[in-house]
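Work Package 4 report. The design task specified in the project plan requires that, given a folded chain encoded as structure tokens, an amino acid be chosen for each position. We show below one input record used in the internal validation round.
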């Protein structure tokens, strides 16, 4: 028997009894209760236990390529500023002035120092406060005591991640065997050629779950990508993946030519199809033979998500003289597929608002989505069954 209809007013939504069915093997399991996608209390617990503990993807190192380059990133832990120093090191700071808290920068650009737009406190590229006009009379004030607040930052093959907890394992431990399974893509060599952001009226997990199954492709993408068949990848660490076998790049629409060469270093299955990964909590790397696109589902409310998408190619591909024209089929495919996925996410959110909604069941084509639901339960529910707690 699945759980009866309950409202969050009368129910302890964190009671493990509500999640016992989610914990069963996939073909016997139930989906997460609707409140996991709608209740502010569940959202708040995810922020504490998932987003403030896990590694959050914030961009690519090639997006802050030169000394003095900066990029502001919004994260579930608040605004972060990425800055490349004169020593070539990329640092992350809480994007909040130590004086009265204004954001130091928005967007991206290059600078020699960071000057707060409010009262002009000035920081060097390592975060040191080097100027604080009008503070001479303030008792015991020493600029050395007021550097920008550093945020823990680690990079793997050009992907930059921040973490708001000191207790979380280092990034490459957290990612388990991902670094080995995806090691042949030469991600270090990628450049980001385009970014697109979307504002979607649905819970972030709906987008992540959708990204982990190909069951929907024959309906949601019937007029674009068409039906795809995925196979769950065995993983260790805080990630899951779906592999879709296809000799030609899946990054263009069926029937369109993919003009770019395959990444020459690819090994094994990476040569034969696409890995759709989910780096928990909320970043997908879609790795195909000639391109990569990443998606980060940034939660802003239980029913609202900002989706950041970045599109990347090997350096030599992006340098082709005709790149701007040749890349069009890729951008067209990505825009189409992503908009279709976003639209169904909004529909699903609307449906989950029904007072009569009870948990559903999974098909054999949703095994990775079931893994994802269990990863969430591992973090959020104290049932003693967690196998992958951060
Ligand atoms: S808030 Fe930055 S200088 Fe005042
Ligand atoms: Fe899709």
């Amino acid at each position: 028997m699945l759980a009866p209809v309950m409202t969050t007013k009368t129910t302890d939504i964190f009671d493990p009894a509500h999640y016992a069915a989610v914990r069963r093997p996939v073909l016997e399991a139930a989906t997460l209760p609707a409140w996991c996608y709608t209740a502010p209390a569940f959202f708040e617990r995810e922020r504490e236990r998932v987003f403030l503990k896990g590694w959050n993807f914030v961009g690519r190192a090639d997006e802050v390529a030169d000394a003095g380059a900066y990029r502001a990133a919004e994260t579930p832990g608040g605004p972060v500023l990425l800055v490349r120093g004169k020593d070539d090191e990329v640092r992350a700071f809480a994007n909040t002035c130590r004086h009265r808290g204004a954001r130091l920068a928005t967007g991206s650009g290059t600078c020699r120092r960071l000057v707060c737009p409010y009262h002009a406190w000035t920081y060097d590229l390592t975060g040191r406060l080097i100027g604080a006009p009008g503070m001479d009379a303030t008792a015991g004030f020493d600029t050395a005591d007021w550097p920008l607040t550093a945020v823990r930052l680690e990079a793997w093959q050009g992907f930059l991640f921040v973490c708001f907890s000191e207790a979380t394992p280092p990034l490459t431990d957290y990612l388990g065997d991902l670094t080995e399974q995806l090691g042949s893509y030469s991600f270090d060599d990628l450049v980001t050629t385009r970014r697109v952001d979307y504002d979607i009226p649905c819970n972030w997990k709906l987008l992540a779950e959708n990204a982990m199954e190909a069951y929907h492709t024959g309906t949601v993408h019937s007029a674009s990508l068409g039906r795809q068949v995925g196979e769950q990848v065995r993983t260790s660490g805080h990630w899951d993946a779906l592999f879709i076998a296809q000799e030609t790049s899946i990054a263009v629409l069926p029937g369109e030519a993919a003009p770019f060469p395959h990444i020459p270093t690819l090994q094994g299955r990476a040569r034969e199809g696409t890995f759709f990964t989910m780096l928990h909590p909320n970043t997908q790397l879609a790795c195909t033979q000639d391109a990569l696109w990443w998606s980060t589902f940034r939660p802003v409310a239980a029913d609202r998500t900002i989706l950041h998408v970045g599109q990347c190619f090997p350096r030599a591909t992006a340098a082709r003289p005709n790149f701007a024209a040749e890349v069009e089929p890729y951008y067209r495919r990505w825009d189409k597929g992503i908009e279709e996925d976003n639209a169904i996410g909004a529909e699903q959110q609307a449906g989950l608002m029904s007072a009569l909604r009870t948990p559903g069941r999974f098909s054999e084509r949703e095994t990775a989505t079931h893994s994802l639901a269990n990863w969430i339960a591992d973090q959020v529910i104290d049932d003693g069954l967690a196998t992958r707690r951060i």
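The mean pLDDT is 96. Validation will be extended to a larger panel in the next phase.
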